[in-house]
Amino acid sequence: VQLQASGGGLVQAGDSLRLACAASGRTFRTYAVGWFRQAPGSERELVAAISGGGGTYYADSVKGRATISRDNTKSTVYLQMNNLKPEDTAVYYCAARMVWYSYTSAEYDYWGQGTLVTVSS
Q1: Exposure pattern of 29-38 as b/e (b: 16+ CB <10 Å)?
Q2: What 8-state DSSP symbol labels residue 108?
Q3: Rounded to an integer, what distance in angstroms lies between the CA atom of residue 108 and that of residue 31?
Q4: How far is CA 12 from CA 37, 39, 62, 78, 85, in A?
Q5: 51 near 99, Cβ under 8 Å?
Q6: Which phi and psi angles does 94 have, rounded to 5°?
Q7: pLDDT digit of tens for each residue in the chain (121 aa)?
Q8: Are 30 and 52 in contact (CB under 8 A)?
Q9: Less crowded by CB within 10 Å, the N or C end of the chain?
């Protein structure tokens, strides 16, 4: 599976962005996808995840502001983020593993290249 993350950019606080993670491979629907982010000097953290069956997880830091969804016909997972805050500034990565999502980055088998989100105050 190859992953391609896109949709990052420079926005102002309060704006919205939709990140996309496009995957190759015919068995995409069986994969769980997680969106991680890493700010300078910080560890990579799980922001949101969606299982192959559609179950979702959100970190407390984005709960209520983020929505993760998937379109298996397009082999793409989206992360809609609203009311962006300066503390959301980071490189966002999508990652995939079979069926169930994990909270641990080391348990993901495939990674996209990352897309930078910068939120100005």
Answers
A1: eebbbbbbbe
A2: -
A3: 10
A4: 18, 17, 17, 20, 8
A5: yes
A6: -105, 150
A7: 899 999 999 999 999 999 999 999 778 889 999 999 999 999 999 999 999 999 999 999 999 999 999 999 999 999 999 999 999 999 999 999 998 999 999 999 999 999 999 999 9
A8: yes
A9: C
Q: Which two tokens stand for residue 86?
A: 């300066």
- Return the pLDDT at 25: 75
The count of other CB atoms within 10 Å of the CB of residue 39 is 14
Cβ proximity of 111 and 23 under 8 Å = no
Separation CA 78–CA 16 (nearest Å): 13
